[in-house]
Design a protein that fits this description.
- With 639 residues, the chain is of the alpha/beta class.
- 40% of the residues lie in helices and 14% in strands.
- It is built from 27 helices and 18 strands.
- It has a 5-stranded mixed β-sheet, sandwiched between helices. A 5-stranded mixed β-sheet has the order 11-10-14-12-13. It has a 4-stranded mixed β-sheet with strand order 2-1-3-4, with helices on one face.
- A hairpin with a 5-residue loop joins strand 12 and strand 13.
- Helix 18 packs antiparallel against helix 19 and helix 20 packs across helix 22.
- Bound molecules: flavin mononucleotide, iron/sulfur cluster (2 copies) and FE2/S2 (inorganic) cluster.
- FE2/S2 (inorganic) cluster binds next to helix 2.
- One iron/sulfur cluster binds next to helix 24.
Length: 639
Amino acid sequence: MKKLTSPQALARYRESLRAASGPGSLRVRACTGTACSAGKSHQVVAAMEEEAKKRGIELEVVKTGCQGLCQKGPVMNLEPSGIFYQRVRPEQVPDLVTYTFQRGAPYRQSLFRQDILSEPVTAMQDIPFYKKQVRIALRNNGHIDPRDITQYIAGDGYAALEHALSSMTPDGVMEEVDRAHVRGRGGAGFPAGRKWKHTRNAPGDIKLVIANGDEGDPGAFMDRAIMEGDPHSLIEGMLLCAYAIGARYGFVYVRHEYPLAVENLRTAIGQAEKLGLLGNNILGTGFSFALDVREGAGAFVCGESTALVASIEGERGFPRPRPPRLSEPVGGLWGFPSNLNNIETYACIPPVVLRGAEWFRSIGTESSPGTKVFALTGKVKNTGLVEVPMGITLREVIYDIGGGILGDRKFKAVQTGGPSGGCIPEKYLDMPVDFDSLWKAGSMMGSGGMVVMDETTCMVDVAKYFLSFTQSESCGKCPPCRLGTYHMLRILERITGGQGRQEDLDELERIARQVQKTALCGLGQGAPMPILSTLTYFRQEYEEHVNEKYCRARVCKGLGTFVINRKECILCGLCAEACAFDAVKETRDAYFIDQDYCTRCKACYTVCPSGAVRIVRSAEEADAPARRAEGDFQRVEDR
Ligand SMILES: Cc1cc2nc3c(=O)[nH]c(=O)nc-3n(C[C@H](O)[C@H](O)[C@H](O)COP(=O)(O)O)c2cc1C
Ligand code: SF4
Ligand code: SF4
Ligand code: FES
């Protein structure tokens, strides 16, 4: 690769790359992201290359990053036919090649189907999962090989930088980002333009640009997908920020559990340096910017801005009091004013600069322009990575894109915002998804986790799950978080274990409000959110746990009355074998549960193959006269 010495040279280089990759050639864009790799996508790609070679087919195989539909991986899409294949296994490749490239017909076994009875869908754009998506941050993900800078450049890669360096002042770039009202995609949605201005206006010659790729929320992988699948869009976004605020140095902070992201970022930085797009005198314009990767050890708190700075400095990842902010002298990395943004935020910047603020504001809503990437998970049919315009409703995301609830069960809630977010109930399904609406509903956008829950989810258990995460990730520096999360977790354990007391609910709320107000950093301040939102919307479930010792989702051990429905029992005896307390008794023609011995451990409930073991609200329910007359349930005293 030869160094490019001017913006014009970059434009000429792009044209030559485009001319070389003619349309119409046979091409497979095969996902080799983390999830698809785990599903043997590399073997699929190797088999495909070998098969094509054997048959003399001229086929270009592009190894892309995540294409979004991870649950159905390995996935691939084909050009020029537009066919999309999912769950491709290496042994299917010979047949797939025969059908697709020699017979000109799609290989039906690997086409997408919403469910087993529905007709297969051939083209990617016809799959409901992709239909409503709009891709800005993920514009290249799943399309280019992240290890090959020429593929990024051949699209509009580094065109925004070229435009900025040749025809915009640093202030012009800043104004464009500010007018676009790009709100930070990593947490609270603070406007990026305003943050950049603070840093630029801070005294001192040395300014730094930092990208937050810590991504510690359980289930989140939006930023990983960008770093793995399109690292140059992050680099270009950081370059534009550096140009606007007058910075010469930058760092990408990534957790070391993301080895592919680290590898692809380092490869991308090396290639950009070789082409003169990073380093000294970029594109011969006198602008210089050096970028490096710093790996974190994977603590959730290190995603918090001041803890992240401490971690890069080589200190323990402890948050520091603010002010001073990162953008102010003393507050930033090694004391230099620093601009910190999320990976997705930076990835949105190049299209904003290239296509203009008006274009960006035409997507999404007035107060939350653009798109947001979500990791859609939980009890939904299609899980994966989705990028949607802000303002789309939760219903559209869950039912149109996600395909609805698994097993067509009833929707109960959706959790957004990760461990600092909240659970939103059914009545808000038609609420637009944007920063402000989510906040008003008692949750937040966060970095983009979206966990769908159905009637088999216990909301008290959900609150306990998130709190046990924040409690174990609390750095312990400040007492409200260290002790408050511990006490709240103990109360939740008591409630879900059948030992809850009525006064626990008030106590829980009291501690939650105090921790929210007094914790030093966002980890502690946000930790009570899952509790407060579930107490607001699902208080009845808490009360059932406490007063009736009953978990309607049948998730919590130690709650409810266990009985066997004789009509459904197939007399296999597995429940009796599983019960460690000898509570399941056997008679000549039936099994029944002796309530005096039953510890409600759920062993019988879990092993029963026919669903005959039931957990009912109370002994009275099991004893209901109608049921007793039918002889459905047998209790020990009936025998
Ligand atoms: C405990 C905790 C963890 C966080 N983790 C992340 C993270 O992994 N990625 C991220 O971008 N922001 C994270 N944040 C938010 C950052 O502190 C910061 O607000 C954000 O990186 C700013 O970028 P943005 O304005 O582009 O959103 C976290 C905040 C807290 C309190
Ligand atoms: S709120 Fe929690 S994580 Fe944050 S400084 Fe205090 S103890 Fe540490
Ligand atoms: S495991 Fe279920 S089906 Fe088998 S004996 Fe027990 S209740 Fe009956
Ligand atoms: S990793 Fe392949 S689709 Fe996500």
